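#random but structural
TW: two for the price of one
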Amino acid sequence: MQLINLEALKSRTEAIKADYQSKKPFRYVMFENFFEAEVAELVHQNYPTIADGLWDGTTYLDQKNKFQKTDFEAGSVMHQLFTELNSKPFLNWIQEISEIEEELIGDEQLFGGGLHQSINGAFLNVHVDYNIHPKTQFHRRLNVLVYMNKDWKDEYEGHLELWDLTGEKKVLLGKYAPSFNRCVIFETNEISFHGHPKPLKTPQGINRKSIATYYYTKERPAHEIAEGHNTIYVNTEGATGQVKRFTSGVRAFLERINKQ
């Protein structure tokens, strides 16, 4: 059974593409029901807990209580899902949505992507992503995120925020709850600032779950090329953000001391 119903997605291409292409200063789109209902339930049921398998939960100045998993058993639902997300048919579909002229390339290593799961107190400050894949040296061009959180409440925080920081004022372009089976696609460049900076306020047993895949090209338009860099973070929260970074930095320091 195919997990991603491309025919169903293709039937919505025109509307999704029009929405995506209408956004400025960088392009993005949010739409519901990425998976068919039955498959969404299957993926949700097979989404591993943090206790299952190896997750990377390293704390950083701008990232806390976030876990990542990229290794999946062959034949498992998650292995099949990421195989489909990196398949040529799916690449062709997001290429049509994005109108990126260079051929899109998936990443079987899922560097920085895979499954993400965040627990109470987690945040990921607003940022632009690293622009060059560290191994292939390809240009990062597109993010696809699918959220897997049933009955998510606004009071839990964890909203994806998209920001325009090209002018003198910081402008919030979009704010989306990580609701079940919701998909967000956006281009990655030097101005595509995004994150979920508000710390999670989730009850015990409720985590923020997402599926993340990133796409690349061998070249990119000359006016978009910048020197290679890692993730670049910004503070959109003033003094609150400074305090949050400080406490996260202390925790990161203690984690590394304890590992020595």
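TW: number two ↓
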Amino acid sequence: MTNQDLLITGGHVVTLDPDVGDVPGGDVLIRDGRIAAVGTVAPEDALGAQVIDARGRLVIPGMVDTHRHVWQGALGASTGDTSLMGYVGKVVQGIAPGYTADDIYAGTLWGSLQALSSGVTTIADWSHNLQGAQHSEANVRALHDSGIRGLFLHGGPGPDPAAFFGQPARHPEDARRVQKELFPDGTSGRLRMGMAFRGTSFTSAETTVEDFTFARELGLPISIHAGMAGFPDSVEALYRKDLLGPDVNYAHANQLTAREFELIADSGGSIAISATVEMLMVLGTYPATGSAFRYGIPAGLSADTTTSSGVDLFSEMRIALAAERSRANKDAVARDEAVLSVELDQRDMLRLATTGGARAWHMDDEIGTLTVGKNADVVVVDMRAPHLDGFADPVSTLVFGAGPADVETVVVGGEVVKSGGRLVGPYAETARELVQQSRRRITERTQA
């Protein structure tokens, strides 16, 4: 990591801080890994700083992916033609059991760099292929080496990922050792730890009580899958066992009832929305975007499994917005009525991808906006290409048209991890070689 100051100058700065707003032609000064100034920075205040020319660019907070299985970084687009159950058979029960610790490292490192390259600077890594201590250590080491900020969500339930469905055994006790050895001070570099639990949709209520009690004994936040078609009895079951709380994040939430959304809101829980996967893999009719806004539930966007989605949140913003407008207006369309106005806009989606994700994981005092004092997680998007030549609000142009290739510069904690459109650092090329080796091993095992 470098201690040199950074000055990002001349860009259209979208702070997403309501007290600051947008700063056209503005500057962002970064010092000691944090944002030192936003607005117009005097030359004498930036003496010796590395200068990043952001003219013709949009400067935004780093994006936050609230739910991704990062270990699957080697398996991109491998289940694009399957439903959730097809994915379970092919990946969870087919490919995952053969993963070595080396495969976990390669996939997680590559998956983290995929995220960083697309402007995602913080990731909640739902690590549910941990087959022992070596797998856990390889996963955490890969997150560290990538330079990403995030949560390592320790998954289970044991050495056979196929047992994720229905096995009553409680979460592996090894999570206690992982916390003690790898996260002794609660954090480890840019990482912190949480728990990835099955919840009542995938195991017994009794096991879920044991798991939640375990996490709360360790003081760790919890993530579960909830509200997916074919897997009922999630939020209501947690309520009956008095397990709801602000430390619980619910991935998907497509099929939840109004009462269940109210229970999440009242308990302070949060939601991770994976619009692409939820519709392509048929987890439910519509993503929970509108319900999250309606009930005031903290929510963020996520790619979930990149075996069936892209690696970026630009696509998630577009798809989530389109799906919510379709859901909100379906009755009027069914009556063959012309719709006069629509709710939610492009800035709502950018907030979901940044401040919303930070709030969902209780990190909004550290990241999510370009605010003086917060961690310097910053993304610079080159808006000069023809497909980003907009007329009005540049955020609209960004949400409707940008993609990972338009991300020119990525800064995490003051460290430049992408520059000039290319990943930089000691692991950029190494990661490619490792993931190619892992893919060859996976192919050999699955074809044997």
